[in-house]
Specification:
Layout (H helix, E strand, L loop, with lengths): L1 E5 L4 H9 L5 E5 L12 H8 L3 E4 L6 H4 L3 H21 L3 E7 L22 H16 L2 E7 L2 E2 L6 H11 L2 E5 L3 E2 L2 E2 H21 L5 E4 L6 E2 H16 L9 E5 L19 H7 L6 H16 L1
Parallel strand pairs: 1-2, 1-3, 3-4, 4-5, 5-10, 6-9, 7-12
Antiparallel strand pairs: 8-11
Helix pairs in contact: 1-7, 2-4, 4-5, 6-8, 8-10
Bound molecules: NADP nicotinamide-adenine-dinucleotide phosphate (NAP).
């Protein structure tokens, strides 16, 4: 089986290039080799590879920059996504795509299910929602995984930023009134591998149904809760207390940390549909964070 992977250098993409290798040949393309900012080039690329599965790990993920760069965000997160989905359908291939908790406005107080009303409050969320709609319009075989607060031991992410700040500042202030589920890129990639295997099985039986699935860790916290947990574990697992500058971490309201893009206050996603389908249990965000911090420590030693 041949799998075409885009965004191979991203947090999720990098993990996918490793985990999907268990299923077949992975043609893993980075931005330089497959640029979603150039939608017209995509059909040629896909037709050259002729994959059985396309996994789109690439995305415009700069949430704040998207506010002033809407055209590019839409081209990468919506227009090109639809082009890739159409190419997948032409080949009778599965299209796997990732979306976000930011398709919701955050006004709910219980975890969002896949059928809850979407209402993005920033450009990034709108561009990702347009991507979802494009994939559904093409109506081939597809899986859209909505995930949230992605981190890894490599790449640009909150976990690495907080650890870096702990070496630079005595006091760290973190927003405590936005709630969601931090999700390790490795769990996203491993769950994707299980889902693709399940697709192959159901496809053979003629029983596969395309759809949207929430794919996050279980449980929820605030950015403040996440930051505090990361630093506690980093100190504990790495015996780092004496080497860090940081002495205190303080919760602050979002209004004290204004950003160009508005963020939903509450964006926890209910993962029961995914767990039922794949017969898996998503790890708690704490369990996943422990493993990632340990990996980060072992890689930086
Ligand atoms: N990060 C989060 O917190 C989060 C939350 C919810 C949903 N998601 C979704 O999860 C998926 C994976 O995100 P991630 O966390 O892995 O993001 P990431 O680490 O920012 O990776 C995104 C990848 O896309 C690539 N890319 C950007 N523009 C591109 C273009 N024009 N053509 C081709 N590739 C391009 C980037 O290339 P470079 O390496 O060259 O920059 C990067 O490798 C995305 O669909 C994202 O929307 C992410």
């Amino acid at each position: 089986m041949k799998i075409l992977l885009t965004g191979a250098n991203g947090q999720v993409g990098w993990e996918l290039s490793r985990s999907l290798a268990a299923l077949g040949d992975v043609v893993a393309l980075k931005r330089e080799q497959c640029d979603l900012n150039k939608p017209s080039l995509l059909p040629g690329l896909v037709r050259e590879v002729e994959p059985d599965v396309i996994v789109n790990g690439a995305a415009y993920t700069a949430v704040d920059q998207a506010e002033t760069n809407e055209l590019e965000a839409m081209r990468i997160n919506a227009e090109s996504v639809e082009v890739l989905a159409r190419e997948a359908k032409r080949l009778n291939a599965l299209f796997v795509h990732y979306s976000t908790d930011y398709v919701f406005d955050g006004k709910k107080s219980t975890p969002y299910t896949e059928t809850d009303t979407v209402c993005p409050i920033n450009v990034y969320g709108r561009s990702k929602l347009e991507g979802e709609k494009g994939v559904a319009r093409v109506a081939g075989d597809y899986l859209i995984f909505r995930t949230s607060w992605v981190y890894a031991s490599r790449g640009r992410n909150f976990l690495r930023t907080i650890i870096k700040l702990a070496y630079e500042r005595e006091e760290i202030h973190v927003v405590s009134d936005q709630f969601g589920a931090p999700t390790w890129a490795r769990d996203i990639a491993n769950t994707t591998r299980i889902a693709v295997s399940q697709y192959l099985y159901e496809k053979r039986l003629g029983e596969f149904h395309s759809g949207i699935y929430n794919l996050t860790s279980s449980g929820m916290t605030s950015w403040y809760g996440f930051a505090k947990y990361i630093l506690e574990r980093y100190e504990q697992f790495g015996d780092k207390k004496d080497t860090l500058k940081f002495r205190d971490i303080k919760p602050i309201p979002s209004c004290s940390y204004p950003t160009p893009a508005a963020r939903p206050e509450f964006s926890s996603l209910n993962v029961e549909k995914l767990e039922r389908w794949l017969k898996v249990s998503m790890p708690s965000w704490e369990e996943a964070c422990d493993l990632c911090v340990k990996e980060f420590l072992s890689e930086s030693n």
